[in-house]
Structures are given as C-alpha cells and as structure tokens.
Amino acid sequence: MAEATDHPTLLLSERPAMKVLLLIFMMIISISHLAHGQSLSVCTGRFACTSQGDATVGMDSNVRLMWRGEAIDLAREGSILMSPQGRFMLDNPFGEQTLGRISATLTKRLSPNDGNELRISERLSVPASVSQQAARAGARQIYYVRDFQLNQGQSITAVQSINLRQSLPGRRPTRQTEGTAAAGRVDIQSLTLTFQNGTLNEVIRPNTPLQARARLRFRQAGRLNAVWELATPASTGGQAIYVPLKMVNRYLSGSEITLLSPALPSTMNGLHRLRLRVLSPHQADIDPADLPTLSYRVSDTALAMQETVPTLTAWRTENTAPLTRHHHFRWQPVPGSHAYQLEVYTDLPPSQRRPRQGPQPVDLGQAPNAGQLIRGQYQTISPSASLLNHLTSDRRYFWRLVAIGRDGDVLAASPLEAIHP
After folding, report:
1. 185-199, 223-237, 250-264: which has the minimum mean pLDDT?
2. Domain final residue, candidates 298, 331, 366
3. Cut 0.70: pTM above it
C-alpha cells in the first residue's frame, strides 16, 4: 500500500486559487489588527494637555509640555504612538500662518497593560525668531501643534497654547506729559458680554443669525484695540482654542460704549464659546481664562431655551469684608456639568434679590456686572483678580452660580446671595 504524500503545503502550491484566497484572508486579518488600535484622542475631554512656562519675546525659551490622551483597544503586543514634528502657528492653530517647525520626533510604545491613558512629556525650545514674529503681529500667545499617529494610522491633531511674556510692541502705555493724561490713555473699568437679547447662553438651529454685544465702561479717552475670538466645537470638548473673528479699532471718549460682534458662525453643530479680548490698553493682570465668555450651542433639534432650572446648592462666603482672593465660593457639584459660571450683579429689582426655593430662573433680565468661568468638576473657587477689579467697595452686590452642560445649556442655578466687596 503506497504511503500518502499529500502534505497541506504541497496541495496549496498546486492550487494557486486557494493560495490567493489564503493571502487575501491574511491581509484582512492584518488590516483589522492594525485598525484595532486606531481609537486615539489627544488633548480632549478629561485628558487635557498642560504646559509650564512662557515664551519670552526675542529670546530662546524652554517650555515643558505634557501631552495627554486616550488610546482604546490596543493590540495585545503593543502599539507605537508617534509624532514626527511640531509646528508653531499664529492666530489659528488649524490655519496656514506657520511661524516655524520643530523636527524633534516624539515616540512612545503603548501596551494594553498600561491602561487607556497615555502621557508624553516634551521639553520644547521656542526660538526667538518665532516669538518675535508673533509679537510683531500683536499676538499674546502662539499655538504649538503636533499630529499624532497610532501604528501609522490616521493622524490626530493636538494643540497647546504658549503665552508670550513681556509688553509687546504697540501695547506699551503711551508716554504722557503733565496736563495731557487723557490723551491716548483709556482706562477700562469693566467689560460685560451678552447676546442681543440679554442672555449669556443660547441654543439655536443651524444657520440662525446670532450676534453679541460688549459693554465697556472706561475713564479718560484713548484708543481701543481688541479682537472678537471664537472657540468652535473642534476644541470646546477639551481645552478651548480661540481663533480671531474680527479686529476692533476704536477711539473711545465719554464713559461707556457698546460694541456689536460680527455675525457668529452657526453652521457647525455643537458648543461654541465667544469672548472679546482687549489688546490695547494692555491688561497684564488679566488671565485670558478669566475673560467674560458667552456660550451658544448649534443643534438641529434646538428648542426654545427653558425659563427655569433646578436649584444648585451653594453656600455663602465667609461673613467678612472686604471680599478678597482668600474668600471661597463653595457648591455641590451638578451631575453632567462641564463648567460653572460665577455671576455678580448689582441694581437688581427687589423681587429678584430674595433667595427663592424651588426652580431658579435661567435669565435674570439683565447681564451680570462681572463674572468668572470655572471649567471642570470643581467644588470651590476664589474670586479672580480681574473680577475683584470690577467691583467697588461702596456698593452691594449679589452673586449666584450657574452650572453649564457640555453642550452649553444651563443645568442648574443657585439663588442670589448678597455680598460686599
């Protein structure tokens, strides 16, 4: 009886069609395996990226960056996260105004045993030429952008902002002589933002017209340079990246002025944030994170904004005066909240001054005199320097906290409480 010699490999070599099918099958397995680890996000949601240090204009400066993100469903044998280069951008991190590039490659091997969170540190050198270019353009910050790839898959763009340190050209106080203090030396006392109907938050359908108003109170006369800036849904889910909408160049006289924003974009669904940033006179003591901010959400299913919301439980500040940075506002977190807004009012009708039980109004009928945006899941905050600068010691104010959802809608509000600055 003859011995069988039909080995599987011999049969395969004799059957080209089967060999082709097997190769195709192995390619599909390989492609699906590579795609298995492509779920990647950087600098979004709760994995916010951080930076330490500023860039000094005209000098080579070192900044420490921490890139954070999330990689889901990594391959069992590990994955390679890589970013081949970085680039410095002016005004718009997703635009074309590149100030320079960094050729340093970031690489990290990821393993499922390390969990979903990823961290990559970078010691970045900001060239003097980059900061000088930005300063000449009147910028107070630049953007550093990297494209990350997992296993050479689709690129994910991540952005970090770097502040520029020192007074920039065109923003130094105007030199004055005795008797001419009013010439070119406007002194801004307060800045409040509202939409045209007086609200701080809006929910609109796509392509709905929308504009905002800024009310500035000031002393003396002089030149105002400012810029309307917008953060779109591409970044408001994590670290909001603001890009210029329109420059403002006005000569101010009198004591108060109202500025109208340009038509606000409303084609992209999701949360948008708007602010007016004053460039000159330079307000060095104001952190951009403390600037008054408006929120609006574009949604295909947008309904009329609700009139009342549940009560947010907040506790009174320490019963001492004057109000300082050492005071604390405390509250009970609201499930689903993405940020909180501290609102400070004056000259409210008596009917609105008494704390009420039950649902709270979303709109108090007028814009707050000052405010402070608190991003994240905090339970306590101290008043910022810019907020305190907008309050005077001879007036009584009222404050409340508003919880804001990820889509910009108001989730809850606390009753009004009196406070003395």
Report:
1. 185-199
2. 298
3. no
